[in-house]
């Protein structure tokens, strides 16, 4: 049951930052790390969505699960206070 409690804590933390600017660091596999800036658009029960604007005004949305934060596949750093969501 401890795992569900941690995921609920992550979900609540992400939900409290909806609408804020965020820096997203995502592990792309094979030693690739993607760093993008966007806006945390929505937080659903199992996933959260980040809207990323590209260089040529193209808009892209990416979604990740809360377990991606837990396994450190994804890092969210909020621009407002440089807060990083991390649970060990």
TrEMBL record:
<protein>
    <recommendedName>
        <fullName>Protein Veg</fullName>
    </recommendedName>
</protein>
<dbReference type="Pfam" id="PF06257">
    <property type="entry name" value="VEG"/>
</dbReference>
<dbReference type="InterPro" id="IPR009366">
    <property type="entry name" value="Protein_Veg"/>
</dbReference>
<dbReference type="GO" id="GO:0006355">
    <property type="term" value="P:regulation of DNA-templated transcription"/>
</dbReference>
